[in-house]
Amino acid sequence: MCLGIPGRVLEIHDDAGLRMAMVDFGGIRREVCLSCTPGAGVGSYVIVHVGFAITQVDEAEAQRTLGVLRAMAGAVEGELGEPRP
């Protein structure tokens, strides 16, 4: 199964010419490429698929989607891993 999961951009940095970000998925943090979402900034919510932010969404939509995923036992952890301490 392939999922696009919403997350909040925490910080943005350059990595060898690629615009990258640390994105928080409700406690799980991953590095994500922002090349497909040039308008995303710190605090923005993005939908991430296989390490790429593919679109921006508003906070309400992001929270609604995360709620649905959490209702599917283990879907977020199965896709992203366990939260960092």
Structure description:
This protein has 85 residues and is of the alpha+beta class. It is built from two helices and five strands; from the N terminus they run βββββαα. The chain has helices at residues 59-71, 75-80, and strands spanning 5-15, 18-24, 29-33, 45-49, 52-57. It has a five-stranded antiparallel sheet. The longest helix is centred in the C-terminal third of the chain and has 13 residues, at 59-71. It starts with a strand and ends in a 5-residue tail after the last helix. The mean pLDDT is 87.
Keywords:
alpha+beta, 5-stranded antiparallel beta sheet, 2 helices, globular
Number of helix segments? 2
Rg: 12 Å
Give a short account of the largest sheet.
5 strands, antiparallel
- Give me the strand/helix succession: EEEEEHH
- The share of residues in extended strands comes to 35-45%
Shape: globular
Which class of secondary structure composition applies to the elements? alpha+beta
Count all strands and give the number: 5
What is the residue-mean pLDDT, rounded to a whole number? 87
Helix content: 10-25%
Give the spatial strand order of the biggest sheet: 3-2-1-4-5
Low-confidence stretches: none
Termini separation comes to 27 Å
The gist of it:
With 85 residues, this protein is of the alpha+beta class. The protein has helices at residues 59-71, 75-80, and strands at residues 5-15, 18-24, 29-33, 45-49, 52-57.
